Amino acid sequence: MSRSLKKGPFIDTPLLEKVEAMNRASDKKVIKTWSRRSTVVPEMVGHTLAVHNGRKFVPVYVTENMVGHKLGEFSPTRSFRGHTTKSEKAAAAAPVAGAAPAAGAAPAPKPAGGSAS
């Protein structure tokens, strides 16, 4: 559910103050922030924000297309390693040749037709 239009977009106050101060001084420094929930507003366009993803700060250069989105959308928290292929699944499922039998396994049957004792 989206936020009420009456309230306006949510931006952490310290973050907004830093951006406005940099706009007044026409300064272009990287701003570190943990506020992934803050909405990108037009005042942020052209700035680089280092958004924390839980492990490190990911630099995000804000463009006009990002306005209205949340900062956390541009700093992924999970790294996708790719889907496994059929050959990888088969290699993982294949038993290792010459391996010792598992503990509690039944002993191998004796060959038939041997000498009676």
What are the secondary-structure elements, in order, as H or E? HEEEH
Strand count, sense and barrel status of the largest sheet are: 3 strands, mixed
| Number of β-strand runs | 3
Oligomer: single chain
Head-to-tail CA distance between termini: 83 Å
- Basic shape: rod-shaped
Rg? 30 Å
Task: Give the strand line-up of the largest sheet.
Answer: 1-2-3
- What proportion strand? 5-15%
The total count of helices amounts to 2
Helix content: 10-25%
Structural class: alpha+beta
Give the low-pLDDT segments. Answer: none
Mean pLDDT: 87
What does the model show?
- With 117 residues, this protein is α+β, with helices and mostly antiparallel strands.
- Helices cover 17% and strands 11% of the residues.
- It has a three-stranded mixed beta sheet, with helices on one face.
- Strand 2 and strand 3 form a beta hairpin.
- The radius of gyration is 30 Å and the shape is rod-shaped.
- The model has no long low-confidence stretch (mean pLDDT 87).
Could you outline the blueprint of secondary structure elements for this entry?
Blueprint: H1 13-24, E1 31-33, E2 48-52, E3 57-61, H2 86-93
Parallel strand pairs: 1-2
Antiparallel strand pairs: 2-3
In short:
This protein is an alpha+beta fold. Helix content is about 15%, strand content about 10%.
Highlighted features:
alpha+beta, 117 residues, rod-shaped
